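It is worth pausing here to work through a concrete case rather than discussing structure prediction in the abstract. The textbook approach is simple: state the sequence, then state the predicted structure, then interpret. We follow exactly that order.
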Amino acid sequence: MAKTLVECPLNFSDGQHKDVITAIVQAAHRPGVHILDVTSDIDHNRSVITLIGEPEPLQESVFAIVGRAAELIDLRQHRGTHPRIGAVDVIPFVPVQAASMAQCVEMARQTGERIGRELQIPVFLYEEAASAPHRRNLADIRRGEFEGLAVKMQDPLWQPDFGPASPHPSAGAVVIGARTYLVAYNVYLGTRDLRIGKAIARAIRGRDGGLANVKALGMFIKERDMVQISMNLVDPLRTPIYRVVETIRMEAARYGVPIVESELIGLLPLETLLETARYYLQLPNLHADSIIEMRVAELAAESQG
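Step two, the predicted structure:
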């Protein structure tokens, strides 16, 4: 019988201090939990640690990370281009193997209740775990960021699901929930003009009439000295990456601006790469079993079984 495995691409608000990042990552180590990836961004001042594991030890790892981050990160001193409301900003649970969305929702609620009770950090539930329709969208919860959180939480509509009724003085609040796969993906443009980046982000953003399942912001990245379109592709199997890239390319062409390169934050499902290869290589029948490493992995699993 296959193990129950859940993924957690947890976002915390430091991408600049290696000692802090290392200490927070070390807090995640537990038997039954694997760290698949750690990606940090200096300008966003944010890191993503991708964990996968069985539900109980994974929840313990997440709780330990939140506690350590609350000790080490002071949002009153934090500056970065990416929106945030918490030292640990977002905790999604994603069903991977022999896990259901309902199970991930329950994990979010259990972990959120414990964070609120033991660490005295307010917790908001989002996506499939949301307690009300206006709390499903992460951007709505995060609007106003840490600096506006105290005022926002005075509104009865924005009282937390767990924990105190006001922000933690230095750690803010945590957003935790359950969702399907999401791809965090950024595209760099050959311009320093942020107005162009914001216009393109608006053109592709789903809520503004662009592409469904795409959330996008235009940002100037000082380290790269160019504009970035920072995106969350919330259903990359329905709105594939190649369609996003080609739409950005088309919109950028009106300003005479090229795509310089793109970057992946965290991990992505194999099928999203296969779909992109099918488009660009004109290989409609490309499947996972066409990839030699996938066939070798299958043989290894069969021999172990």
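Step three, interpretation. The chain has three domains: 5-178, 183-268, 272-305. Residues 75 and 147 are 9 Å apart (CA to CA).
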